[in-house]
Specification:
It is built from 14 helices and 12 strands. Keywords: Cell membrane, Membrane, Transmembrane, Transmembrane helix.
Length: about 425
Amino acid sequence: MILSFTAKTAWRGLIANKMRSFLTVLGIVIGITAIIMVMSLGQGAQNLILSQIQGMGSKTVVVLPGREPKGPTDSLQTFFAESLKEKDLEALRKKSNVPTAKEVMPLVFGSDSASYKNETYRLTLLGSSEKISDVFDLGIDKGAFFSENDIRGRSDVVVIGSKVKEKLFGESEALGERIRVGERNLRIIGILPQKGQVSFFNFDEVALLPYTTAQQYIFGIKHFHRIIIEADSEKNIDRTVSDAKATIRETHNVTNPDKDDFYIETQADIASRLGTITNVLTLFLAAIAAISLLVGGIGIMNIMLVSVTERTREIGLRKALGATEKNILFQFLLEAVFLTGVGGIIGIVLGVSLSLAISLAIQFFSTIDWPLGISFLAIFLGIGVSGIIGIVFGIYPAKKASEKSPIEALRYE
């Protein structure tokens, strides 16, 4: 009964100054909204990364050039490193060297514009072997993939993604036509089905060509950006990695592992590394968003102190009529918790709504299959934090109100 009366009294005190109460909780609303958005979008990014990695298959390992990066910024050096060559590919393909390797294929990649008649479209160029279709489970919609003969002969042939076909040819037939990339006229021999994002490549927007053609005529390089190895089973992943390391060290004449000019990552390694990066980034952004909660808490305390001063006569009258210090403290503490609670609820609704809206916008305006996801941890944190802020920043004004002398309070003008 007493609790109900105190709660009603606290609520009446808040709605008596609606605008002031709204402005007071604004910092809490912004903080909770930002935290839920950051954590939900961070969770979406992690889910996207996992789905991309799974798209390559759990039996796949990736050989990368250069020394293993120690931090996120070091990863750029792998694109410019030139330590993976044809001799490494040939050695890894020998069954005697890596008996558990089912497929071994190189990757070279970059971006350029492709043109056909008056149409131009910027796409991703991906040079590889004929095995890329099997490793990435691409399939073919029309035509065929290039062959070993095309690779040996550095043929000017290309397989294009569904969006490339749509942008350059529309409803017209594309098979047999030639698109110009750089200084080369590449003949279209195949069209991929709609595939979307697989392992960080959007195969709807790619042009696949023999790696030898890409190396010599498009990129002007003699090295690989990646070598992909598909193990014959998941249980042989560790052995595949071990044999691949030993093979490349032998071709590079390296005896000390600390001198390796390459490194190998399994899908689990990639997931762990990228997951750590997204976690750190999410926590960092959430910490920044939490600053607005601190500011909001200070605003709560400030406005409650003003309220205590304005309502001094009310406090004195209530004490004169029998209200205890505990009743007064509880009333003003409840007002602070109500304020932050309302701010928390509004923040949660806004945070969830904006997170879903941003996720849908990413899906609609880009080719990224961004997963819809809401961080329920963030929602529970929002509820808990808003309540804690109300208690922490409301206790001092509430205590100050409860300690006022009824005689002095009734004299106050």
